Give the backbone structure.
Amino acid sequence: MANFNLKINGKSHTVDVEDDTPLLWVLRDHLGLVGTKFSCGIAQCGACTVHLNGNATFSCVTPVSSVGNGEVVTIEGLSEDGDHPVQKAWAEVDVAQCGYCQAGQIMTAAAFLETNSNPSMEDIDNAMNRNICRCGTYHKIREAVALAAKTK
Amino acid sequence: MATQLKASRRDFLKIAGTSVGGLVIGFNWFSCDSPKVEVLSTEQILSQAKSFNSYLSISPTGDVVIYSPNPELGQNIKTSFPMVVAEELEADWEKVRVVQANLDPAKYDRQLTGGSGAMPHSWERLRKAGATAKFVLVAAAAKTWNVPAAEITVEKGIISHKGSGKSGHFGEFVTEASAMTAPEEVTLKDKKDFKIIGTPVKNVDSKDMYTGKPIYGLDFQREGMLHAMIQRAPFGMKIKSVDDSGARAVSGVKDVVTFGTSVAVVGNSTWPLLKAKKLLKVEYEPDGTVESTADHDRLFAELLKSGKAEVKRKDGNVDAAFKGAAQVITSEYQCPFIAHSPMEPENFFAHVKGDKVELIGPTQTPDRARQETATLLGIPPENVSVEITRLGGGFGRRLRADYVIEAVEVSRAVNAPVKVTWSREDELTGGAYRPAVRYRFEAALDASGNMIGYKLRGVGMNAGNTTRENNFPSGAVDNVLIESIEHKSSITTNAWRAPITNFLAYAEQSFLDEVALAAGKDPVQFRLDLLNRAKTTPVGELGYDVDRMIGVVKTAAEKSNWGKNPNVKQGFSVYFSHRSYVAQVADIEMQGGTPVLKKITAVTDCGMVVNPTGANHQVRGGIVDGMGHAMYANLTFENGVPKQKNFDSYRLIRLKEVPEIDTHFVDSGFDPTGLGEPALPPTGGAIANAIFSATGRRLRSQPFIEQKEFSDIKLEIRRA
């Protein structure tokens, strides 16, 4: 066990966990930030996506020891009141079915739009292909990312 | 056309006043023999979920709270049920709040999610509840203003009387209304006057989902709660010995407990348990049959040949028809076991406290969780409370309570509140799969290409009846024999979204394409000819409405420009399941020798569409689901253990792999039926038939990508 000082959603947190503990479980089990979801645990589905220094990152395979001074942003910290352009687009398009994967989808989309503010549909497809939605809301995800790009 | 409906007070209505003037209407969405009148304060109405969960309540401020009893797993029932109540109430949707009810069999009937049955079951009850609440509010306003109730109008929660110029919101009349007697009859609205039903109302949980609120079972945490993960035995095996020394040595592991064929590691957080589970050394020994996929393939071949089948339907003289046939077509189709793979893995919280148990988590069948817990512990069911969280998908997996019982077992063993969490590997290897099935179809054609005989024999692994014997084409053919054979496998199975038909529809619709080709007929016309036969001179019992099926077939042909563009190779499929009719056409365009799947057109008759957003979601989602599993999913077994253990080897469909989906809904004038399942069954057939049309390759097994006929087809998927 070791102490780790983490910067999450603009605040400083200290946790005492094993070095190899994935950031996902630090967030969920130790800090109560359960908006970041567990689903596959092997970087295949994207439900656990957070921003690490602005990059969409699979938190399920990111050991806490590798985070260092990195800035972590989770779905809870993406905006003050759910008013990030991507969150607003998600609500406007009414994307979700079960909703479980959507926090990860939103985090992937938000990081992507920071790097590409005027994406083609093909760009959107490539960016969002890393997140699985078992309910099949893919058409709405594309639509919402395109809308967020326009309104951002 | 307003409908007079008897609204028996015993059936669903109770009115109560509250100490601070709120109105509580206990409408017991479902009949209840002994409804209780509960008098509640407004604070209770607006804040305390548990005390009034069968009620529609209206506060003095005019806010409306509606309880939704059925588990929400993405089918959008938590939005669409209250829409129906609010419609008849003439409520302002902006002032309606929806709360998930906990399990309460005394108040709710059929409090489960499955079979696409919630809306058809509750449609009329929900309407009556809203209409009755409106009735007493109007009566209260009429009394207050001393005007005839018939002259009063209600719109968006505002009650008005034109003649006197008086108006007020619902909240102003709740005290008076609470003293009213429930009406014996209520008038329901004309469907043409609907203002909320039929509009794209947004998901009531949107904001919680998009801001990461703890709304799913896996998000539940409580002070002092322990975590558990479980190692389960291979199918057909039992535990011989357990060496848990390595697991116990992991920092953070508090205990290791064994029950049945399971070993649970228990600790304060999840990660140490994921590590500890890998260090468990459990030796197993056979306890019955230990099966592999090779055994299933052998069994399919043997059982299809054997004479021991259960006859599900027999019309006419099949032997004579086949003997006298000008042409006989025979084909076999097979599907593998597949997992449900909800994105939220199975999990449940249980706290066994003496002879009482608290359960919290994602379940499609809260009452089953309660009953199985009561049976396990030998306690009365009412000693078990079940709080229903939002479900991160279900697809039928959460109809079972196996993972709930695990939490109860561990909580009892360690005498503490426990949440059991499954890993993805647990989910894929932990059983209750869509069963593997093989079908043999035979068709007899006369010299004019008419189908005079039809035979279907299905063999399933724990699949129950593998057929839907009264479904199309039964009723359209003179001589029919439908049989089913079940092999009792040690591999556990369960309903999987559109049970049986999720594969049967693909097999049947592909086979009918083969028969149409042999008969020299257009696939759509071939189906219409059969349907016309079933309409004019039906044979035996029909489990479907012929006109509604014809309706979706014709509309799908029209909307997809069936057969109009020679560059587009199309595949047709139509299926009736769970009370709804769906026809689909897949379009493949040949681009420089490459087949490109561009579009699936879907035409659905689910009666009236309650929420177009939700309906589109269910149809598109069903198609994506049907396509993904037909294309990619396969669970194979080696000595009772699945080889595919996570999404790296068990492939789910991704965003770039879905074509455009063009949805249409037929307005047949019927009351709404469910949509969680019916759009899935036709998809595999539409795609397989389009692939045949484009390449001449007939895909008779799933998943398509593993078939040798498909190996050199470079199917691309592109959207506009």
